[in-house]
Write a structure and sequence with these properties.
The protein is of the alpha+beta class. Helices cover about 20% and strands about 30% of the residues. It has a six-stranded mixed beta sheet. A hairpin with a 6-residue loop joins β3 and β4. The structure holds a DNA duplex.
Length: about 160
DNA sequence: GCCAACGTTGGC
DNA sequence: GCCAACGTTGGC
């Protein structure tokens, strides 16, 4: 079962927002990057586990785990002129943009910060040494994570600090 | 707020 | 198809 990491700016949508949703579920709308779109449309499946990441904030961190509860379907926000995510070029008959639904699994008691991830990745032979999130210039908002990386991050969230 | 890295757009 | 200009991301 593949694993993913999804970024969000907590000022826009945080893991606490997800925790407050009916069924703790939301659609992951507004991804407007073709590489991420391809993952959403073609690769991400129901049951896949997701690291929920807060970016562009005071302490960037993985803040919890979510699960994919609906596989790729058209992002209808692209057809809504009122929406911030409106895209005049996306045709409802042949949609450009896709989204999935995610459901909260759990919020980490202690977020695993980007700083901690980098420190871990710097250790010799670290499981995280090649993690996409940590690569220079990497800014894909939906990205693959290996099973080992996923397990490691979850373990770090449980470790005493 | 700065700025490096990256993606997209559009003139040619 | 090239590439400069522009916009966005996101850490710091």
């Amino acid at each position: 079962m593949p694993h993913w990491l999804m970024k969000t700016e907590p000022t826009t949508y945080s893991i606490q927002d997800l925790a407050g949703e009916p069924n703790q579920t939301t659609c992951w709308e507004g991804v407007r990057n073709y590489q991420a779109r391809n993952l959403l449309r073609d690769d991400i499946q129901v049951g896949d586990q997701v690291l929920f990441y807060h970016s562009a904030c005071k302490e960037p961190a993985v803040t919890g785990v979510a699960k994919v509860s609906r596989a790729g379907y058209p992002d209808h926000h692209a057809f809504d002129k009122q929406s911030h995510y409106y895209d005049a070029k996306s045709n409802p008959d042949d949609p450009t943009w896709f989204m999935v639904d995610v459901t909260l699994d759990h919020v980490f008691a202690a977020p695993v910060t980007l700083k901690q991830l980098r420190a871990e990745a710097a250790l010799a032979g670290s499981v995280l040494s090649d993690m996409m999130l940590l690569r220079k210039g990497s800014r894909l908002s939906v990205q693959p994570v290996t099973a080992k990386e996923f397990k490691k991050v979850v373990a770090m969230s449980k470790a005493k600090r």
